[in-house]
Amino acid sequence: MKSKIKDISVYFPSNKLDNNSLYNEFPNFEPDKIENKIGIRNRYIVSEDETALDLAINASNNVLENFDRNKIDFLILCTQSPEYYLPTTACVLQDKLGLSTSTGAFDFNLGCSGYIYGLALSKSLISSGIAENILLVMSETYSKHINAKDFANRSIFGDGAAATIIEKSDEEHIFEFVLGTDGKGMNNLIIPNGGMRKRYEQNAEIKSDESGNERTENDLYMNGPEIFNFTIKSIPALVKNTLEKNNVKFEDVDYFIFHQANKYILDYLRKKIKIPEEKFYSNMLETGNTVSATIPIALKDCMDNEIIKVGDRVMLCGFGVGYSWGATIIKI
Amino acid sequence: MRKSDFLKKMHDSLEISSVENLTEETILKQLGEYNSMFLLTIIAFVDENFEMQISTEQLLSVTTIRSLMDLIGYEKFED
Description:
In chain A, strand 14 (313-320) and strand 15 form a beta hairpin. The radius of gyration of chain A is 19 Å and the shape is globular. Chain A has helices at 19-25, 31-38, 52-63, 89-97, 114-127, 151-156, 224-245, 263-273, 294-304, and strands at 2-11, 15-18, 42-45, 74-78, 104-108, 133-140, 160-169, 174-181, 189-190, 207-208, 214-215, 221-222, 255-258, 313-320, 324-331. Chain A is 30% helix and 25% strand. Chain B has a single domain (3-76), classed as Orthogonal Bundle (Non-ribosomal Peptide Synthetase Peptidyl Carrier Protein, Chain A). Chain B has four helices and no strands. Chain B has helices spanning 3-13, 36-50, 56-61, 65-72. The relative contact order of chain B is 0.21. The mean pLDDT of chain B is 91. At the A-B interface, helix 7 and helix 8 of A face helix 2 and helix 3 of B.
């Protein structure tokens, strides 16, 4: 059985954190410089009582406006901000959406590579005959993991959700995948405390980095330069391997959508891989880095604004926390 | 690459405005631009111009620009 992406909807919380607001808190960092360097002007941030589940519910209801929810037979949620350790947030989501109790559902924990893995899982479920209409949801609230005095990470990450319907199809639209993992990068994007290895610490020590960003081991830590090293080493090969696996020439890919990490990294990768500017998506201006949601948000933006059209071959490429990476080619 | 060209290119590529010129004695950590984004741009600059990767650990041990040039390989630079 073959599969295709039927529809995508997104949802953002209503609070906006713009660069001027950040400048009010951190006067050493000028709003224009933030925007010019990393390509981010605004990010949406959940309120205290809003969670990734809430964003997932809204994104899902948006995409189900034009699709009979009784036809959904599988629900997959990708988040690193679950509602609880247990039960599985996808189980709670099934109930909140009023999906059939015959629906299979589970969460998986990935970040920036999440959408690629989600598509791979969906394709597998459909091709094996286990499911026919899948609701795949990316929902993330990194803002809840970032220390209020960590300017660097607060300037980059935004909250958001994207819900995708993947259905069985007569013609294949989701092609071959290249996936990869390197756990040696585990410490370069991590929340050290709060899991089973090191529990949440009530009076955790506040540490400052060389730029004055503050965090404790209860908070998210990202080694930006090392992540950058990882991407420039891994992503050109990922693109090449994905082309080979799909038996597609570089020039026959109509468009490239990479995980929208930040403008600087994307510009550098684009030039290194020699992707023409007109074939490369780079836009995180109003949303920031929404982790696993960046690729479906970008896809929806491209389809709504006719940047890509029916029949186009688009390479999707996700990479980041883990380290985890993956890419595929889809036909719109 | 000539040393003077390297210093000028580095000054321009890294968009340094806190000092007018870079010298081999310039201490990177004392530049106003020094933060994790700045380290990223140094990694990009070295990768683009010398096709080599520097780890964050190596970069954090760099003091002067001369020590960065040593990391790259001082013999690669002409007078």
